C-alpha cells in the first residue's frame, strides 16, 4: 500500500540542490557547483526558479527565547469545531507549530511557555473551551534532533562535509545589538546579500560581512530550509509517541536522531517520554520503520499519528488568511 499524491516531485538534481542548502543556507553558487559537479549557471538558474515560485525558502532557524520552556500539546477536538480551535492557536505567537491529524480530531502543537510553573493556555484556556475534549501537555527535557538539523539523504558523506561550514569551538554566546539587527533582517530570507543587508540596516558593508562570518563560524546564524516534504518525494508525515524505559531513553533518542526519516526527536515528561517526527515516502516505509527500525530498542509502546494538514511550522503558514484544516481535507 502506498500513498499517492498529485504533488510534482522534484528531480534528483533539484533534490541535491535543496540538500546542499540544508548544509549551508548561505552557500555560494560556485561552491555548490564545484562540490556537486553541476555548472554554476545551472545551479543559479535552478535555485532562482525554486526560490521564485516559493518551492524553497531559506530562513533563520528559530531561536528559543531566554528562559522559555517548550511543551508538546495533544489536543482532542470535536470535529465540527476543529477550524475554530486551530485558527485561534495559529494566531498565537507562542505557538510556532501546529499539525492536524489525518483523522481530523486531534491537534498536535508546540507551545513556548515562560519560566514559571503556571501556564494559562494549558491549565485554563483550553480546558474551558467547549470544543476541546482533552489536553495532554508534556515538557521537552532534551532535544536530540530539530528541524534545522535534518538532512535530505541524497548527498554522500564527503559532499555533505565539503558543503558544511566549519565552525569554531565554544558556545555561540549572546548576540549583541548589531548581531540581533542582522539576524532580524535575515529572518525571512537568510540568503540576503551583504549589500542588501547593509542597505536595510544602515551598517557598513564591511561590518555586515565581518559579522556574518563570525555569526556563522560561532553557530549563532543557523538556517532552516523550508520546503514541502511532498516535493521531495516524502508523502507521509507522521508523529510517533514512544514509551521508553529511563535507562534506554538516551540511547534510543540518539539512535532516532541519526535516522534519515526523523526530522524531530525530543525527550519529554509523561508516560510517552520520547517523540519522533517523521517524513517518509509511503505507508509501507512507515510500517518498516515501526516494525524494523524500532525493533530491539526496548521500546514499550508506540502511538503513531498521521498528519493530515501541517497548519503552522517555522517559515510556513498553510493558510495565510486563516487555517482551514477541515476533516474533508484531512
TrEMBL record:
Tell me yes or no: is Lipid metabolism among this UniProt entry's keywords.
no
Q: Which domain of life is it from?
A: Bacteria
Which Pfam families does this entry report, sorted A to Z? AsnC_trans_reg (PF01037), HTH_AsnC-type (PF13404)
List residues traversing the bilayer: none
- The residues covered by the HTH asnC-type domain are 175-235
For this UniProt record, the keywords arranged alphabetically read as follows: DNA-binding, Transcription, Transcription regulation
Leader sequence residues? none
- Keyword field contains tRNA processing: no
What protein name is recorded for this chain? Lrp/AsnC family transcriptional regulator
> Which species expresses this protein natively?
Streptomyces silvisoli
The taxonomy runs:
Bacteria, Bacillati, Actinomycetota, Actinomycetes, Kitasatosporales
